[in-house]
Amino acid sequence: MLANMSSTPMLEIKDLVKVYGTGPKAKTAVNHVSLSIPKGSFFGLLGPNGAGKSTTIQCITGISQPTSGQILIDGTDVVAEYKKARTKVGLSPQEFNVDIFSTPTELMDFMGGYYGIPAEVRNERIEKLIKRFDLTEHRNVKFQKLSGGLKRRAMLGRALIHTPDLLILDEPTAGVDVEQRRDLWAYLKELNEVEGKTIILTSHYLEEIEYLCKDIAIINHGRIVAEGTKEEFMKEGTSIEEAYLKITRASNANLS
């Protein structure tokens, strides 16, 4: 397991199980997953489609309730203290789950209102986020008319409006061109290294994981099949992609 940088991990998952359905048709999406992510980490969560990444994220953010196990965000139980836990985490999902007729300013304003942030404070934060993500010229453009990169920036702004300590990014650069992807990487490194945000990143761009993440876990068939630092994954001179393929193929073979 990863060494703690603080007495209380930013995220602690204890023996998480998530089962959908009942009886013979029941499907176990997450199967006894445990993780401890220290504060200040830039953590990569990797796995094939259907491996359990999205379900784990949904349980962390309260979108889905665990079948068993416990999840703590900075020591706060996400089930027993849902409202408090939800204020500690920001989510930028892979899908654009927003009103496409709203502008970036409106999206951030609505989310700030959801968290009960007073209008004056909300407006001040919106101005900072608009500038941070270079959205000044696009702040009043409807979401549907924005480019892929600008949409991702607007989603990040929305996720950060309530100043969460933990930021979860699910495929944050999907559909973004190379130049804009690099720009987003720079923003994310700043959030982690300068502002101290703990970031969990899922991505199929393994170059992205290799560039940004300090620690990595691989989930497959609902289980954690490998975990460690980036250096440990690359210790034999391999890339993250090579290590990932080797590990997932081995775990698939063990189940066949």
Search tags:
globular; disordered N terminus; six-stranded mixed β-sheet; four-stranded antiparallel β-sheet; alpha/beta; 9 helices; Rossmann fold; 256 residues; 24% strand
Note poorly predicted spans.
1-6
In CATH terms, the superfamily of the domain at 1-88 and 167-173 and 202-256 is P-loop containing nucleotide triphosphate hydrolases
Major beta sheet summary: 6 strands, mixed
Structural class: alpha/beta
Please estimate the helix content. 25-40%
Q: How much strand?
A: 15-25%
**Mean pLDDT, rounded to whole units?**
92
Compute the number of helices. 9
Identify the overall geometry. globular
Distance between the termini: 27 Å
* Highest-level CATH class of the domain at 1-88 and 167-173 and 202-256: Alpha Beta
- CATH topology group of the domain at 1-88 and 167-173 and 202-256: Rossmann fold
Order of helices and strands: EEEHEEHEHHHEHEHEEHH
CATH architecture of the domain at 1-88 and 167-173 and 202-256: 3-Layer(aba) Sandwich
- The rounded Rg comes to 18 Å
Report strand order across the widest sheet.
Answer: 6-7-8-3-9-10
E-strand count: 10
Concise structural overview:
The protein is built from 9 helices and 10 strands. It is α/β, with parallel strands linked by helices. Helix 3 crosses helix 4 and helix 3 (104-114) packs parallel to helix 5 (148-160).
Please write out the topology.
Blueprint: E1 11-20, E2 27-37, E3 42-46, H1 53-60, E4 68-73, E5 76-77, H2 82-87, E6 89-92, H3 104-114, H4 119-132, H5 148-160, E7 166-170, H6 178-193, E8 198-202, H7 206-212, E9 215-220, E10 223-229, H8 230-233, H9 240-255
Parallel strand pairs: 3-8, 3-9, 6-7, 7-8
Antiparallel strand pairs: 1-2, 1-4, 4-5, 9-10
